[in-house]
Specification:
Blueprint: H1 3-7, E1 24-35, E2 38-49, E3 53-57, H2 64-68, E4 81-89, E5 92-93, H3 101-107, E6 108-111, H4 122-132, H5 139-152, H6 156-159, H7 172-184, E7 190-194, H8 202-217, E8 221-225, H9 229-235, E9 238-243, E10 246-252, H10 253-258, H11 263-269
Parallel strand pairs: 3-8, 3-9, 6-7, 7-8
Antiparallel strand pairs: 1-2, 1-4, 4-5, 9-10
Helix pairs in contact: 4-7, 5-7, 7-8
């Protein structure tokens, strides 16, 4: 499957639709990941609610990105990778060989570490997937979706007069927000962010963080992997700490950072390792 097909999402509730927060939308139960004989993720159970941001933190190689990529089954495409346990989406276990990955990624979108715009215009980046899935027809529908998606990603005012120019002409921060807009164009109810700000300058980072908060307030479930603990405190409602393949501790972000229970998390937060 091509990268363009991997990253297109789907029509679930609309951005800005005001869906209430709360209620488990996505959960894992004893989720494990093995690469051959190497167990990269030990049994992990977490719950994610609509309208909230969850940060996954921990040192490099601790399993947080491995866990994230299980949530839309991306790890399944890696040779010799075995995913055990359950991934429950709307109460249904999607960790089965029968699951249609193309359809699943319509509603569980993903934004990657490096901006990945298509070699198309800004407009066509937004419309590629909706047109492919027959979700828009006619110029009026297309124009409305382009504006809505770019506004949701805080990019509309910067590109409204450049929609037919190449996405490659944008700055790195603008490209990343375009990738967010492209994901939102399919109205997912879950968006996964894998270190979305690691390649961005501080101003672009702030804008992306504000965008993540905004889409969560619209009712979307947002899950972000970050090595930046300050970012986790700024953007997330809940945090889970991973270490050497274990999900060590989870809870509300303010509590987790101010009163960590596990010594490994205490040591990580005080800079003793990381």
């Amino acid at each position: 499957m091509s990268r363009e097909n991997e990253m297109i999402g789907a029509k679930v509730p609309q951005v800005g639709s005001g869906r209430p927060a709360g209620g488990e939308l996505l959960s894992t139960r004893d989720l494990t990941v093995c690469y051959g004989s190497n167990e990269a993720l030990h049994p992990t159970s977490l719950d994610f609610a609509a309208g909230q941001v969850t940060a996954l933190i921990g040192p490099s190689g601790c399993g947080k990105s491995t866990f994230l990529r299980c949530l839309n089954l991306m790890n399944r495409e890696i040779p010799k990778c075995k995913i055990g346990g359950e991934v429950l989406y709307h109460g249904r276990n999607i960790n089965t060989r029968k699951e249609n990955l193309f359809e699943l990624r319509k509603s569980i979108g993903m934004v990657f570490q490096q901006p990945t715009p298509f070699r198309k215009s800004i407009r066509d980046n937004i419309l590629f997937a909706p047109k492919r899935h027959g979700l828009v027809s006619g110029k009026e529908d297309c124009d409305a979706l382009v504006e809505q998606s770019l506004r949701a990603a805080a990019l509309w005012d910067e590109v409204r007069d450049k929609l037919d120019e190449s996405a490659y002409a944008l700055s790195g921060g603008q490209q990343q927000r375009l990738c967010i807009a492209r994901t939102l164009a399919m109205h997912p109810d879950v968006v996964l962010f894998d270190e979305p700000c690691s390649a961005l300058d501080p101003i672009s980072t702030f804008t992306v963080e504000e965008t993540i908060r905004s889409i969560a307030e619209s009712g979307i479930c947002a899950i972000i992997v970050t090595h930046n603990m300050e970012q986790a405190t700024r953007v997330s409602d809940n945090t889970a700490f991973f270490y050497v393949g274990d999900m060590v501790e989870t809870g509300p972000t303010k509590r987790l950072f101010s009163r960590p229970q596990d010594k490994r998390l205490q040591d990580y937060l005080t800079g003793r390792f990381g």
